[in-house]
Specification:
Oligomer: single chain
Number of strands: 0
Distance between the termini: 72 Å
Largest sheet: none
Order of helices and strands: HH
Shape: rod-shaped
Helix content: over 70%
Radius of gyration: 21 Å
């Protein structure tokens, strides 16, 4: 292979770096996957449990 041609690995890395420069999330906030990625599995589990408990509390007091 000649030096002026880009290898597939280098091209993938270049494209990945370009995507990281332009985040796809909206200006209003980030998406759920960003939140879950930042929390980790323990934080995500805690968030799900709190949402379930909150749903039951709201459903009890609304009825």
């Amino acid at each position: 292979m000649s030096d002026d041609k880009e290898t597939p690995e280098r091209r993938r890395e270049r494209l990945r770096q370009e995507e990281l420069k332009r985040p796809s999330s909206s200006i209003h906030g980030s998406v759920l996957s960003d939140l879950v990625g930042a929390l980790g599995w323990k934080g995500t589990l805690l968030l799900i449990i709190l949402m379930i408990i909150g749903f039951f509390v709201v459903s009890i007091f609304v009825i």
